[in-house]
Amino acid sequence: LQLSNTAILHQIRRDQVTDTCRANSVSSRKRRVLTPNDLKHLVVDEDHEMIYCYVPKVACTNWKRVMMVLTGRGKYSDPMEIPANEAHVSSNLKTLNQYSIPEINHRLKNYMKFLFVREPFERLVSAYRNKFTQKYNTSFHKRYGTKIVRRQRKNATQESLRKGDDVKFEEFVAYLIDPHTQREEPFNEHWQTVYSLCHPCHIHYDLIGKYETLEEDSNYILQLAGVGNYLKFPTYAKSTRTTDEMTTEFFQNISSEHQTQLYEVYKLDFLMFNYSVPSYLKLE
Question: 0.85 exceeded by the pTM?
Answer without folding.
Answer: yes
